[in-house]
Amino acid sequence: MTLHVRSEAWPRHERSPSRTAVVQAGSGATSRGGVRVPRPSARVIRLLRQSSGLIVVVFVWQLGARAWLGATTPAPTEVLSAGWELTRTGEIWQHLAASTRRVAIGLAIGITIGTLLGVAAGLARVAEDFINAPVQVLRMMPAVALVPVFIIWFGIDDVFKIALIIVAPIFPMYVNVFAGIRSVDQKLIEAAESLNLNRFELMRFILLPGALPQAFVGLRQALGIGWLVLVVAEMQTTPVGLGYLMNDAKEYLRTDQIFLVLVIYAILGLLTDLAVRLLEKRFLSWRNGFAGR
């Protein structure tokens, strides 16, 4: 005798879930009327969380400009309007291109010099004894104090501005690269020596990868300082650039354009920082450190 049991005889809540339901539950999808509706991914949620702080700042700025700060501080909507006006005329692109070119040249040269000095001082004590004292003395001099000296040396054209930007990132790169190399565990050095690695292989496989996390910290600091020094450099006599746009807006009391330039500086700094963080994910994927909770 064969016993046939209809599934409808069992209560609905006691039925075992189907394979499709298990797959949907595991993939984070929900079902509405038989149609799968994917839930927001973790990446989207993380992006919203990272943007929430800026959204709050802009919201408070908008309310404060209307309620507390008065006519001297433009609201974000007025800043956007000024940006659209300069974009429509094409003037903003001319200034942005000039500033970007200056900071790109200055940062490229300055970061290279700082990295080479840090590597040399980190690898050899003779180089450390020769390099460290002059670099530490120059590091204590603020970039603003060098402005009149550089104007005397290089004039007021782009050479002065680029030279000022070159100096700024040297010191954070030197300090962090040097500290990164010297913080490599001595046991790793002993293990490399037991494997008969030569000096080049020791530097390539042990020292430089071990110093890379600290070097990226220095790179983030160097990029931020480069944009700050660009502001100082372009506030001097210049025919084109974001600093010129700010000075011109100051003469005509265009506070909306002044704040527009400040916002552009902030966005450019944020973009460069994000670029470094992407490089960190690419080259430091081997690192298994604490990522927060």
Automatic annotation (TrEMBL):
Domain ABC transmembrane type-1: 96-280
Biased composition (Basic and acidic residues): 1-17
Subcellular location as annotated: Cell membrane
Membrane topology of the entry: Multi-pass membrane protein
TM ranges: 103-124, 136-156, 162-181, 225-246, 258-279
N-terminal signal peptide: none
Chief site of localization: membrane
A single GO cellular-component term on record: plasma membrane
Keywords: Cell membrane, Membrane, Transmembrane, Transmembrane helix, Transport
InterPro entries in the record: MetI-like (IPR000515), MetI-like_sf (IPR035906)
Region (Disordered): 1-35
Biological process terms in GO annotation: alkanesulfonate transmembrane transport
Alphabetized Gene3D superfamilies for the sequence: MetI-like
Family: Belongs to the binding-protein-dependent transport system permease family.
The name this protein goes by in its record: Aliphatic sulfonate ABC transporter permease protein
Organism (species): Gordonia sputi NBRC 100414
